[in-house]
């Protein structure tokens, strides 16, 4: 009896972990702020040609309870429902992504009445890279930072593609931390270069490199945002 119970518990734990850790499918996408992003649902039921079995859940990076964005193919009323759509492949499209969209997206399949979950969850983690420009007197600081769900495992740094910068680095300061990087330079010393000579180099946790040219953001303070998505089962 005790053995039986123990077996059940370990089987439960095994399922719990296999749902989260096995099947190392890890995709990431990078999208600039204001761009649209398509999160694929990787656990679709084979040969089912409709999204009436698909549910999308969202947990934000502050770890609040999951919110249902899509229920059996129908977009639910949420703060971002007007920016959401579902493709024929049941992918979740988010328009004009913002930092509030950072978090964990779960695609889940249900069948039958009452609905029973089919297969494992397909999880998509969304991270957001924000670029800002700060000017003070003659000094310009460009900042590139990644907003992530949970622990930061991204590497961020600024690189440049200007001939002029290769000659003289003396008035350029860089500051690197795990999920952000800043570069500060004296504008008058580098009048020949522009902010768009700088690129933010983001290396994701799975070692993929993505480059983003600095571009000012249209709405005020923000420089521009990029998105990063990781898919895990
Ligand atoms: C996002 O999608 C909308 C319509 O679906 C389109 O009008 C807009 O240009 C797209 N934005 C970008 C940045 O591609
Ligand atoms: C860059 O932005 C991030 C996120 O807002 C912030 O934590 C970091 O301190 C900033 N770095 C500098 C040097 O301002
Ligand atoms: C971007 O950063 C990664 C990791 O720090 C580095 O290996 C790579 O060479 C950099 N890419 C460029 C174009 O500098």
Automatic annotation (TrEMBL):
Signal peptide location: 1-23
Protein's UniProt keywords contain Signal: yes
Organism annotation: Haplochromis burtoni (Burton's mouthbrooder)
Protein name (record): Ig-like domain-containing protein
GO molecular function, one term: protein tyrosine kinase binding
Residues of the Ig-like domain: 31-108, 120-215
Domain of life, per lineage: Eukaryota
GO term, biological process aspect, one: positive regulation of ERK1 and ERK2 cascade
An example Gene Ontology CC term for this record: external side of plasma membrane
InterPro entries: Ig-like_dom, Ig-like_dom_sf, Ig-like_fold, Ig_sub, Ig_V-set
One Pfam family, short name: V-set
Keywords recorded for this protein, A-Z: Signal
Gene3D superfamilies in the record: Immunoglobulins (2.60.40.10)
């Amino acid at each position: 009896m005790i053995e039986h119970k123990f077996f059940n518990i370990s089987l439960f734990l095994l399922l719990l972990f296999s749902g989260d850790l096995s099947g190392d499918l890890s995709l990431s996408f990078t999208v600039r702020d204001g761009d649209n992003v398509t999160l694929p649902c990787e656990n679709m039921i084979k040969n089912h040609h409709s999204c009436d079995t698909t549910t999308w859940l969202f947990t934000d990076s502050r770890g609040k309870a999951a919110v249902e964005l899509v229920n059996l193919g129908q977009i639910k009323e949420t703060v971002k429902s007007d920016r959401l759509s579902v493709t024929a492949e049941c992918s979740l499209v988010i328009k004009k992504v913002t930092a509030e969209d950072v978090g964990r997206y779960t695609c889940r399949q249900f069948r039958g009445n009452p609905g029973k979950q089919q297969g494992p969850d397909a999880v998509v983690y969304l991270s957001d890279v924000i670029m800002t420009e700060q000017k003070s007197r003659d000094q310009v600081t460009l900042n590139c930072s990644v907003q992530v769900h949970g622990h930061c495992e991204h590497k961020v740094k600024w690189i440049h593609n200007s001939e002029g910068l290769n000659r003289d680095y003396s008035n350029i300061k860089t500051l690197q931390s795990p999920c952000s990087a800043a570069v500060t330079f004296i504008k008058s010393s580098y009048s020949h270069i522009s902010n768009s000579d700088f690129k933010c180099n983001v290396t994701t946790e799975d070692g993929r490199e993505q480059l983003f040219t600095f571009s000012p953001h249209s709405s005020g303070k923000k420089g521009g945002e990029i998105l990063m998505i990781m898919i895990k089962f």
